[in-house]
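B., you asked whether I could sanity-check this one before it goes into the benchmark set. Here's the sequence:
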Amino acid sequence: MVNPWRPLIAAAALSVTLGVGTAAAQKVTVRNAPAGDTIEVALNATNVGTGTADAQGAATLPLDISAHGNKTEIDANVFVDTCDKRHRVIVVERGQPIAPQEAGCDRREVSGLFLVRQVNTLVVDIGAPNPTLMLIKGAYSAGPAHTWAGPPTGLVVFGGGGLAKFSDFAVPACGNVTPCDTNDSGVAYTAGATYWFTKFLGAEGSYIRPDKATVSSSTDTLTFNNSLDAHLFTASGKLAIPAGPVRLYGSVGTNYHRATSKTSETIGGATQTLQFKTNGWSWMWSGGGEVWLGSHFALYGELGFARLRASSVEGIGVIDDHVRFMLFGGRVRIKL
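And here's what the prediction gave me:
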């Protein structure tokens, strides 16, 4: 007689068949359990195996459906009971009584009705709030469970590079002189440190070194070269949203710059050089994200904007510009 439930069973099983050979004996493998916890397997209302989760959170126990009615396959539901440091996987044939839920235990059902054969290994992952199941044909090796490291707290140092661009440097430097060649963007380097008080809140200090910006022009009556060499030091607060190994963040704070502007002009055969230095405080902001590849190392990328505004320390000359930067690099957690 054809079982009318079989199409529904196949659709609901969510099983995986890897074709790694026929198992010598049917097994249940539990993954992502706390190391050292007790693992039990029950068939209907009867316990059929007990073991202990190893250092990787895995345990493999026997399950022999042929011992109950000499069957080679059953339609079954699967439940997981969690009782403090004990976890029980219950395989229940459709229509059979289930092992009673003990006091203090939380019972969760694996979604689906499964066609369980003697050649199957049941791989049950109990690491998430809702357990999941794979049906494997033949033996299965759990191997070490991989877990992504979450964003850490504490001290993190970083370094990297990218691009930086001065927004307004060329306009006052060129004035109405044409032609005027400008190079107001280039490679930038950065280094700094962040202290995360929590996964969501931190404070950061950094150094950003943009490439020197230059402007030059040569006409029949005038030749000039102008350069701006700047160093930026930032201090900011950071708010973040962690999601698994990823932390998205925004930073708002201040920057202190030190810059030297130098202009060399040749008019009618006479050359003069003008130079002034500035330093001062203004605002900055940035936003980006980091991905932690392990507990101590991450890759990051961010975009930012800083204003440079100050008068010359000698009293002649003013800088009023903005720097946009796009930076990428690595972060390393430092244990104190």
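One thing to flag: DSSP finds two helices and 19 strands in the chain. Otherwise nothing jumped out at me.
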